[in-house]
Amino acid sequence: MQRLHWELKNHFSHEGKAGLYMLGFDPKNDGFEHKQDFLFSDHDKVINHNALISDLPVHIPKMGVSFNNLFLEQCNFTPSTKEMISDAVSELYTEREIRILTKNGRSKKPWAKINDDDIIKRQNQIFLFQNHK
Fold this sequence. Notes:
Oligomer: single chain
Number of helices: 4
Strand content: 5-15%
Structural class: mainly alpha
Largest sheet: 3 strands, antiparallel
Helix content: 25-40%
């Protein structure tokens, strides 16, 4: 469904957030503040990518999770497509925020496509990703 919203960019919008917390309660926002609609625009795509970069590391267990299971665990809480989550995971891997292993336990090449059965692991120490805007 998310993929269709991004492709069509028609009349659909939601008042949720980008990243993984689109439906989450934010105690800093009492509900009276006007929220900008999320319209699946190119601008929203950039905001969503940056939010994924911030949100994903804490949802990746140290013991690891398959990419497919990571997506399935988060897909109802994000406007992101599987490809968008894959792009964010790839960027986090390139920046050494996370590790990606093949199903055989070998380190994935940074430029290689992420497969559903690849294992995504959190680094022992999460670094503050500061290169995104």
